[in-house]
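Good morning C.,

I know you're traveling, so I'll keep this short. The sequence:
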Amino acid sequence: MKLIVGLGNPGEKYTRTRHNVGFMVVEKLVGEKSWSKSKGTPLAYVHMKMGKEEVEVIKPLTFMNESGQAVMGPLKKHQELSVKDVYVIHDDLDIELGEFKIQFGKGPKVHYGVNSIEKTLRTSEFWRVRIGVENRKVRGNKGIPGEKYSLQNFRKEEEEAVDKVIEEVVDKLMGVVF
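The tokens, ready to paste straight into the viewer:
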């Protein structure tokens, strides 16, 4: 079994922000399937079979900095699930817009959602799907702090690169995970 966690912030105002690219990926991965809300843990989930693999895909319903709360619930619920079977999908300002990396135990210098998960799980030994959102060099955005920049919506001219990388990540996950 695998657990795929898309990081983001709940609420309509965050839907197309850089920080919500993890939500965008899992929504594309799940497609038309309906999300259920967990009764005990603040998350939405879809349990499905992909190939021969059982997969639970989740979106924490906490804000980014408290994402660890949502990850612990499925790990307790599915005893056969190992931390090494967890894939956390998140935005990364260390990677250029349109690029991504899938790495085990390696993450960005600073990401409060990932930090929350590491703190809750007491390990950094899980998979990270790092989606590049850095594009501040364009149009004089260099001086915007990362925390503010990641909460901005993607600009119109960035949408094509974002949609393309989401497709690539979903295809790669299908090949790597399943």
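Safe travels,
E.
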